Amino acid sequence: MSHTGSIWRQFDVPLLIATILLTVFGILMIRSATLNAIDTDLINRVPDQIRFAILGIFVMFGLAALDYRLLGGLHIWLYLIMVALLVLVFFFGVEGDAGAKSWINIGIRVQPSEVAKVLIIITLGQLLANNYEKMDRITTILKSLIHIGVPAAIIFIQPDLGMAIVFGVMWVVMVWAAGLRLKHIAMFGLAILLTAPVVVPVAWSQMQDYQKSRITSFIFPESDPDAYYNILQARISIGSGGLDGKGYAQGPQNIGRFLRVRHTDFIFSVIGEEFGLVGGVLVMGGLGFVILRILRGARMAVDPLGSLICYGVATFIFFQTVVSIGMNLSLMPVTGLTLPFLSSGGTSLLSTLAGIGLAESVIMRRRRL
Question: What's the pLDDT score for residue 102?
Fold first, then answer.
């Protein structure tokens, strides 16, 4: 393991460069999507994103400098802080555009579930690392499920189905990386089959109308003309971009305002229209490069906690990328999940950069190969 004075020599510079390039490109695309806007919220999107990007870079370097094992040692306190932040939403929360009460206003709007997404990686990682030799016990798996189930349930009630699913996917990947046994997979598969007839209707009844509409319009596109309009315009935007696109801030779908929520949910459609297939592939390649560098960090980590932290960060970046691009291509229902680094959303960008900082902390303290 590296000495303190030399850990910065192991800082992953290619990961940093890719992160900054994607962040800057995201700001440019948000500018294109909100150009000549008259709505105050849209006008402020670019300066807000820049402020969060600067703050996020400081947080990223701060977390990289901090030994991730110190954070692991504080996992109980971090878990309590995370749950407290999520509960505060019920008392002081403000609604977003879609009606989800997922933000609190502290001078700036902050989304606690995005903060929780980073904290749960540390706390769940430490829990699994502490029980690394007991992964053959069902009690260990159930303990980890309860650990992530509490914040996920609170987020679902807010309601934020997309983020709750992100938590579930991170749990699956992290317990698998920690050594989930095949017998446990079979047991959970059987449990899901047996409880689905009860759980699915209950979950459906707890969803907001806009969430139900997103699912039904995906299965039956013409059942909700208004929701289908967004999906159709997204496909038109990407298709009209062709090979090399219409040019920056020159896309008719974008500047003509035919494409709604283009700065958040459908930012990839703006990229496809203005930079074409080439631009879309380069963006996906950049995101893929970031994920691969983080997975490389997981492979070289000195301990289970470091490895699990990297797996957790790589998972949420990968999953949100797949879902966001998938819904732009009508391959998945609209969930409201941001495209990492690129979609407008200050807390989302901040949490992603914080995740990169955690991964860098692990990478900087990796074993020498």
Answer: 74
The SS3 assignment for 225 reads helix
- Three-class secondary structure of residue 103 per DSSP: strand
Strand 109-110 relative to strand 103-105, pairing: antiparallel
Element (H, E) at 318: helix 304-328
Identify the bridge partners of residue 93 per DSSP, sorted by sequence position.
104
Q: Please tell me the predicted confidence (pLDDT) of residue 307.
A: 96
Q: What's at 179, amino acid-wise?
A: G
Q: Tell which phi-psi region holds residue 247, choosing left (phi > 0), alpha (psi between -120 and 50) or beta.
A: left
Distances (CA, A) of 310 to 124, 169, 331: 12, 14, 28
* Predicted pLDDT of residue 96: 62
> Own/partner pairs for 223-228, CB < 8 Å, 24+ apart?
227/334
Cα 342 from Cα 322, distance rounded (Å): 13
Q: Judge whether 64 lies within some domain.
A: yes
Helix (H) or strand (E) holding 104: strand 103-105
For residue 111, give the nearest of 166, 63, 74 by alpha carbon: 166
pTM of the model: 0.90
Which pLDDT does position 210 carry in this prediction? 67
d(CA 154, CA 147): 12
The CA-CA-CA angle for residues 285, 287, 293, to 5°, reads: 100
Structural domain for 78, as ranges? 4-364
Report whether 235 contacts 277 (CB < 8 A): no
- 72 with 126: CB under 8 angstroms? yes
Q: Is residue 369 part of a domain?
A: no
- Specify if 77 maps to a domain: yes
Phi, psi of 183 (to 5 degrees): -65, -35
**Overall domain count for the chain:** 1
Domain annotation covers residue 151: yes
pLDDT along the chain (369 residues), means of 10: 66 96 96 83 88 96 95 95 92 66 74 94 96 88 94 90 93 92 79 79 71 72 72 86 89 79 88 94 97 96 95 97 92 86 92 97 80
Give the containing element (helix H, strand E) for 55. Answer: helix 45-65
- Contact, 2 vs 368, CB < 8 A? yes
Written as six digits, the tokens of 21 are: 């390039």
pLDDT for position 2: 45
